[in-house]
Amino acid sequence: MATTKSNEFNIKEQKIAELCKALAHPARIAIINFLIKKKECICSEVVNELPLSQSTVSQHLKELKNAGLIKGDIVGPRVCYCIDLKKWNEAKKIINLFLSQEATQADKPC
């Protein structure tokens, strides 16, 4: 079994990496954009929107849900997905703080 060193980094760094990993695929960005526009939908609606199979879309939804960016509620035999607004706003704050850090140019080229 492979070991990971991610627990060697602070919680803030781990959270930023987790969020960025969840957003690191164009299908997941498309899903987020769709959910922002649609407010909520079932998996089959997302499948109809993307050029991917149902199982692939389900895997991407699972990754976004595990990262806390979306939530899925069981409604009868289906799962209804939407943006988790509380977690979404926390993610925006964390990523914005990270990206708003001022980087300076070195005097000499690297």
3D structure, described in words:
It is a single chain. The protein has one domain: Arc Repressor Mutant, subunit A. 55% of the residues lie in helices and 14% in strands. Strand 2 and strand 3 form a beta hairpin. The longest helix has 15 residues. The protein has a three-stranded antiparallel beta sheet. Helix 1 packs across helix 5 and helix 3 crosses helix 4. It contains five helices and three strands. The model has no long low-confidence stretch (mean pLDDT 90). It has 110 residues and is of the alpha+beta class. The protein is elongated and about 60 Å long.
Task: Please describe the topology of this protein.
Blueprint: H1 11-22, H2 26-38, E1 40-42, H3 43-49, H4 54-66, E2 70-75, E3 78-83, H5 85-99
Antiparallel strand pairs: 1-3, 2-3
- Helix content bin: 40-55%
Low-confidence stretches: none
Strand content: 5-15%
CATH superfamily name?
Winged helix-like DNA-binding domain superfamily/Winged helix DNA-binding domain
Strand order of the largest sheet: 1-3-2
Number of helices: 5
Order of helices and strands: HHEHHEEH
Q: Which structural class do you get from the secondary structure elements?
A: alpha+beta
Largest sheet, strands/sense/barrel: 3 strands, antiparallel
Here the CATH topology equals: Arc Repressor Mutant, subunit A
Average pLDDT level: 90
Shape: elongated
CATH arch. level architecture: Orthogonal Bundle
